Amino acid sequence: MVGKFVDQKAADRYFATYETIRRKWPVPSEELDVETRFGATRVRRSGTGTPIVLLPGAMGTSLSWYPWVAELAARHTVYAVDVIGEPGRSVQTRPFENTDDEADWLADVLAGLGHEKVHLVGISRGAYLALNLATRRPAGVAGVLAFEPGGFGIAFLRFVLWSLGELSRWWLPAPILRRVSAGDPTVRHTMRPLVFRGMKYKIQMAPQHAFTDDELRSIDVPTHFVLGARSSLLNAQELSARVESLVPRVRTEIVPGATHALNLEEPELTIARILAFAGQDHAGLPD
């Protein structure tokens, strides 16, 4: 089975919303359909310079990067990806059987972009996919910047309850939302209909696995973790100690007060870390 909407009506409503948000993309862009072993992957390209590939969190699509792309594209070639197997403009033709398949898919995407090396930046599920590639198919990866990555254990009930609470706040009027959640309420309100209409898509992804110590030791590119001190997905202190003891080329940063929605809560920090990471010498990142 491949990913698909439950019916045509659901697809039509989703893509009408997708197009509305696409028009908010603040800089000129080109849409590419990159052929892979698992189907055509939609990639949105903006800017010029050192290439960065942006991978969204689950259900986010390339459009979830619209609040930050202008500053990124002013200095870099930015590629924002619709992850195949999830709702978006990518078209899955073959299912993911395992995490190796997901690494093959992303390796195909990078090969299709035509650069020798790219920096991978991912949020949550996207960060997991970036790290998964770095541990399995590292050719073409210049480095990985992982915001709140999956793949490091999860207190399932705690995360589900947090997710429900976070999404419920997206319905609050802006003045109230601004009081209860950090960040610009406009971003949550803009993405809300796309996320909720995407729930009528039957996602087809491989089960997420937990990274082993041996997999982490195999990472041979500069890698930076940005973690929320109040994350419901992972234990930031434990993960920081673990990866820094295993991998010499990994650095971690724990953001005080931040939750799993770190990118929404700390937009300026998100932009600053991406720009610093994509610099030639990775200057500007916290030690």
From TrEMBL:
Pfam families: Abhydrolase_6. Residues 52-272 form the AB hydrolase-1 domain. InterPro entries: AB_hydrolase_1 (IPR000073), AB_hydrolase_fold (IPR029058), Carboxylesterase_BioH (IPR050228). Coiled coil: none annotated. GO terms for molecular function: catalytic activity. It comes from the Bacteria. Gene3D superfamilies: alpha/beta hydrolase (3.40.50.1820). This is Pimeloyl-ACP methyl ester carboxylesterase. It comes from Lentzea albida.
